[in-house]
């Protein structure tokens, strides 16, 4: 026997080809039974079936006539008798052989058109199933004419009602019945024949609605669409360009009607299956191609953005289960539509991107994918810090009297989709798709942030603001929005102060002025800020001006920078004991045994808030968990990675230990650590923890409680005071709404990556210097030759901080100005303006020596 005959048919055929083969075999089997019924009968002497040879009224026919008649009976779904007992017992003949010994070859007599229904029958197909598509596709392939399929695709995909009913999930037993044609009783044969006829495009069955067939019961977050079937159908259809064009045209025709239905008829509330339209359309893997991007996708996004929040939330939950490749494909589709639209148009202050309906609609659709990525990522929705509820006063504020209350609404606004889903961006440690992939740089380049800020704050109900979708904005753009918010608050406080001074006849004090002594900077700052926070916390929202006693520097920003730096150096001094320092991670953590009062921690919180509010960068070294806690999350086991890596490794060993934890490790739910003076301190993680051994069963609880104690409970007093000070300045800011924890760190600390080549490219020159001046060429060669520490000293000397601002050193806009001819004087700087005053030294060696001395020993401010 040849080897090929040993190979099963199913291994040689594609699953779809196998399905068609089975259907043809099933139809052939039924026709052959009609043939035997016409030539042999069923064996029942009392048979009343006029199409059965056993019926007394039946007129005998020859084999050829019987074969033709059997095909006609199959097409009309005629009655088919069950073999009578006496007939089945004889079994003398081959089941496919007639009484006269003739066995007709139906495979040669019948084409797919005969087996699967005539071409005209497809005109009554009112919705699609996977089997229907394959049946029509098979006929079209045999005839070499796809016009029927194109017409039906256009008909179904352009009609909302038809698309809703298409590709429905069916109960598992229905599929089994379609593939099983074992003889049972007459009624079951009729049901099966009808099922086959329906699936193969029979005129009467094809028009039946899916609800006539058993469907799976779905939950509130489930859909009735068979996603896998839709994907398989698209795989077959999209290989044909003619069919692709039909899909594009159908989508163009479909979406305006869908948009009207959603906007005026509330169709989703009455029929949740309306969501099927968007699920089916978004499974098309070619939506990112120009054919769709030009017309179909803009219309589709406008329709999708009309879905109610509950529908968008359900869509996010459904897509979250699709897996990375499918979610990424949808994300890239909407991103490409946004980019394609932006580069195809021109925007300015008169023609804003905010008014582009396509960009706005695509951004709203991208939001659904963004939350799907969050839901599918590493979520932590349980560990939240308790928010302090502020009591609302019934008295009118001056801002309300001035009609500015909308600009200064308390707290961050609520994202409706977040509220519906019960999840926030900060709840996700690691989304399925990185946050950065949702940022659209083309969009960030054309946004007019001053206008967008106005829409965000004042006209949110009538105008779209991209700050309502902060995931699409980069940190630079969001920082601009925060800058406008801070500056407008400063101007508002200045106006209010002027009004109060006019009424009360006092000298106006429009700024937050701090006069401090260098040698007593903490005491002076603490006393002044504590008084302000107690008497009038709103003064913290005024523009900051710092004056060092005995110095002539005027604060245009540089003096404030040094003030912040000196305060931080003092507070983070290990000798004070407010924070502990980890030599390995080079990070600070709150000292749970600190003897300092809460006011000191409130001060450092205020300083961080003021730095953000006044656009200053601080040299702060906190682990990420601090910023997560500031944004409302508690620290957990996973946060120990950067704050307490040694402890994390120990706890990880407990979790992964394969032996008997209780007997081998002998640890309990009582832990110990050392206080400020090195004395051991014990703490019970549970009541009578010293009597509760850690076992293999409860070790996860032990680890969670241990992490909770280290990151939350042990420093609860210190961190609460710290957060209180931070919120005194930022409580009315959109900071929490716009930024993720890692972006808040970037705002406060700046970037640790220093690209001095980017700084060179953006530096401007004054006083006679240019980029081609020899002294300038020598300067950059010298600076690039410096070590990392020397470069940071230069940055500190020139700008007041050794960190890059948000966006990198390229955003710094440093100025190098000529400060006279060759001299022995050192270079000087105006940190307020990021300006370096550089004499025209006679040699490169002298330039290097003078510059190193200046950046190494410079401290203090004086009038030049």
UniProtKB/TrEMBL annotation:
<dbReference type="InterPro" id="IPR042556">
    <property type="entry name" value="AZUL_sf"/>
</dbReference>
<keyword id="KW-0833">Ubl conjugation pathway</keyword>
<dbReference type="GO" id="GO:0048511">
    <property type="term" value="P:rhythmic process"/>
</dbReference>
<protein>
    <recommendedName>
        <fullName>Ubiquitin-protein ligase E3A</fullName>
        <ecNumber>2.3.2.26</ecNumber>
    </recommendedName>
</protein>
<dbReference type="GO" id="GO:0080090">
    <property type="term" value="P:regulation of primary metabolic process"/>
</dbReference>
<keyword id="KW-0862">Zinc</keyword>
<dbReference type="GO" id="GO:0005634">
    <property type="term" value="C:nucleus"/>
</dbReference>
<keyword id="KW-0647">Proteasome</keyword>
<dbReference type="GO" id="GO:0010604">
    <property type="term" value="P:positive regulation of macromolecule metabolic process"/>
</dbReference>
<keyword id="KW-0539">Nucleus</keyword>
<dbReference type="InterPro" id="IPR000569">
    <property type="entry name" value="HECT_dom"/>
</dbReference>
<feature type="region of interest" description="Disordered">
    <location>
        <begin position="176"/>
        <end position="220"/>
    </location>
</feature>
<dbReference type="GO" id="GO:0008270">
    <property type="term" value="F:zinc ion binding"/>
</dbReference>
<dbReference type="Pfam" id="PF16558">
    <property type="entry name" value="AZUL"/>
</dbReference>
<dbReference type="GO" id="GO:0005737">
    <property type="term" value="C:cytoplasm"/>
</dbReference>
<keyword id="KW-0479">Metal-binding</keyword>
<dbReference type="InterPro" id="IPR032353">
    <property type="entry name" value="AZUL"/>
</dbReference>
<feature type="active site" description="Glycyl thioester intermediate">
    <location>
        <position position="832"/>
    </location>
</feature>
<keyword id="KW-0863">Zinc-finger</keyword>
<dbReference type="GO" id="GO:0030518">
    <property type="term" value="P:nuclear receptor-mediated steroid hormone signaling pathway"/>
</dbReference>
<dbReference type="Pfam" id="PF00632">
    <property type="entry name" value="HECT"/>
</dbReference>
<dbReference type="GO" id="GO:0061630">
    <property type="term" value="F:ubiquitin protein ligase activity"/>
</dbReference>
<keyword id="KW-0963">Cytoplasm</keyword>
<dbReference type="GO" id="GO:0000502">
    <property type="term" value="C:proteasome complex"/>
</dbReference>
<dbReference type="InterPro" id="IPR044611">
    <property type="entry name" value="E3A/B/C-like"/>
</dbReference>
<dbReference type="GO" id="GO:0048731">
    <property type="term" value="P:system development"/>
</dbReference>
<dbReference type="GO" id="GO:0000209">
    <property type="term" value="P:protein polyubiquitination"/>
</dbReference>
<feature type="compositionally biased region" description="Basic and acidic residues">
    <location>
        <begin position="176"/>
        <end position="193"/>
    </location>
</feature>
<keyword id="KW-0597">Phosphoprotein</keyword>
<keyword id="KW-0808">Transferase</keyword>
<dbReference type="GO" id="GO:0006511">
    <property type="term" value="P:ubiquitin-dependent protein catabolic process"/>
</dbReference>
<dbReference type="InterPro" id="IPR035983">
    <property type="entry name" value="Hect_E3_ubiquitin_ligase"/>
</dbReference>
<keyword id="KW-0090">Biological rhythms</keyword>
<feature type="domain" description="HECT">
    <location>
        <begin position="536"/>
        <end position="864"/>
    </location>
</feature>
<dbReference type="GO" id="GO:0042752">
    <property type="term" value="P:regulation of circadian rhythm"/>
</dbReference>
<dbReference type="GO" id="GO:0048513">
    <property type="term" value="P:animal organ development"/>
</dbReference>
């Amino acid at each position: 026997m040849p080897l090929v005959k040993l190979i099963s048919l199913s291994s040689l055929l594609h699953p779809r080809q196998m399905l068609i083969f089975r259907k043809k075999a099933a139809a052939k089997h039924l026709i052959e039974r009609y043939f035997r019924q016409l030539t042999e009968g069923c064996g029942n002497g009392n048979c009343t079936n006029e199409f059965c040879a056993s019926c007394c009224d039946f007129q005998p026919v020859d084999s050829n006539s019987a074969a033709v008649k059997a095909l006609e009976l199959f097409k009309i779904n005629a009655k088919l008798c069950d073999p009578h007992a006496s007939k089945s017992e004889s079994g003398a003949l081959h089941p496919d052989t007639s009484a006269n010994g003739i066995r007709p070859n139906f495979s040669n007599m019948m084409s797919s058109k005969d087996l699967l229904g005539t071409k005209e029958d497809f005109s009554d197909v009112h919705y699609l199933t996977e089997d229907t598509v394959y049946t029509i596709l098979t006929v079209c392939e045999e005839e070499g004419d796809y016009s029927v399929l194109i017409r039906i695709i256009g008909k179904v995909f352009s009609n909302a009602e038809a698309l809703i009913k298409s590709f429905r999930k069916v109960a598992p037993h229905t599929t089994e019945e379609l593939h099983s044609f074992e003889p049972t009783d007459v009624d079951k044969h009729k049901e099966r024949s009808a099922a086959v006829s329906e699936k193969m495009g029979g005129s009467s069955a094809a028009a039946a609605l899916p609800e006539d067939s058993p469907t799976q019961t779905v939950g509130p977050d489930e859909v009735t669409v068979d996603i896998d079937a839709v994907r398989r159908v698209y795989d077959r259809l999209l290989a044909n360009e003619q069919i692709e064009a039909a899909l594009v045209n159908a989508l163009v025709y479909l979406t305006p009607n869908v948009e009207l239905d959603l906007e005026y008829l509330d169709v989703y509330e009455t029929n949740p299956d309306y969501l099927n339209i968007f699920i089916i359309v978004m499974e098309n893997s070619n939506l990112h191609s120009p054919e769709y991007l030009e017309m179909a996708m803009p219309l589709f996004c406008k329709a999708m953005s009309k879905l109610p929040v509950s529908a968008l939330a359900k869509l996010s939950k459904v897509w979250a289960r699709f897996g990375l490749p499918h979610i990424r494909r949808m994300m890239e589709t909407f991103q490409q539509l946004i980019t394609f639209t932006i580069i195809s148009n021109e925007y300015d202050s008169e023609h804003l991107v905010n008014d582009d309906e396509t960009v706005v609609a695509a951004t709203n659709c991208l939001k659904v994918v963004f939350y799907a990525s969050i839901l599918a990522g590493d979520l932590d929705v349980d560990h939240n810090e308790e928010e302090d509820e502020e009591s609302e006063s019934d008295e009118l504020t001056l801002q309300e009297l001035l009609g500015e209350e909308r600009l200064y609404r308390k707290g961050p606004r609520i994202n409706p989709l977040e509220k519906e889903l019960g999840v926030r961006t900060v709840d996700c440690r690691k989304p399925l798709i990185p946050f950065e992939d949702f940022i659209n740089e083309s969009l960030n380049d054309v946004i007019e942030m001053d206008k967008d800020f106005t829409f965000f704050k004042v006209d949110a109900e009538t105008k779209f603001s991209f700050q309502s979708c902060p995931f699409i904005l980069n940190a630079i753009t969001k920082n601009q929005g925060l800058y406008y918010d801070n500056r407008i608050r400063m101007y508002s406080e200045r106006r209010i102060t002027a009004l109060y001074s006019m009424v009360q006849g006092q000298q106006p004090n429009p700024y937050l002025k701090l006069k401090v002594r260098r040698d007593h900077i903490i005491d002076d700052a603490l006393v002044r800020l504590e008084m302000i926070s107690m008497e009038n916390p709103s003064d913290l929202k005024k523009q900051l001006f710092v004056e060092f006693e005995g110095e002539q520097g005027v604060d245009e920003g540089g003096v404030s920078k040094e003030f912040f730096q000196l305060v931080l150096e003092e507070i983070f001094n290990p000798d004070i004991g407010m924070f502990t320092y980890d030599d390995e991670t080079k990070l600070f953590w709150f000292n749970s045994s600190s003897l300092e009062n809460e006011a000191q921690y409130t001060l450092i919180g205020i300083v961080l808030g003021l730095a953000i509010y006044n656009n200053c960068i601080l040299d702060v070294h906190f682990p990420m968990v601090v910023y997560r806690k500031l944004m409302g999350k508690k620290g957990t086991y996973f946060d120990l990675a950067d704050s307490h890596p040694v402890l994390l490794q120990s706890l990880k060993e407990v979790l992964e230990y394969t032996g008997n934890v209780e007997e081998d490790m002998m640890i309990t739910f009582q832990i110990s650590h050392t206080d400020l003076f090195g004395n051991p301190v014990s703490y019970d993680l549970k009541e009578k923890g010293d009597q509760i051994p850690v076992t293999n069963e409860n070790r996860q609880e032990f680890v969670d409680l241990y992490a909770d104690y280290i990151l939350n409970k042990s420093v609860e007093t210190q961190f609460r005071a710290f957060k209180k000070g931070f919120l005194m300045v930022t409580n009315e800011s959109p900071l929490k709404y716009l930024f993720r924890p890692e972006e808040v760190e970037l705002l406060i600390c700046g970037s640790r990556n220093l690209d001095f080549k980017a700084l060179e490219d953006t530096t401007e020159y004054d006083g006679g210097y240019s980029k081609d001046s020899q002294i300038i060429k020598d300067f950059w060669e010298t600076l690039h030759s410096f070590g990392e520490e020397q470069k940071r000293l230069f940055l500190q000397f020139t700008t007041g901080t050794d960190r890059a601002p948000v966006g990198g050193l390229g955003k710094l806009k440093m100025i190098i100005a000529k400060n006279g001819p060759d001299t022995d004087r050192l270079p000087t700087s105006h940190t307020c303006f990021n300006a370096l005053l550089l004499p025209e030294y006679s040699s490169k060696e002298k330039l290097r020596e003078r510059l190193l001395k200046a950046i190494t020993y410079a401290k203090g401010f004086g009038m030049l």
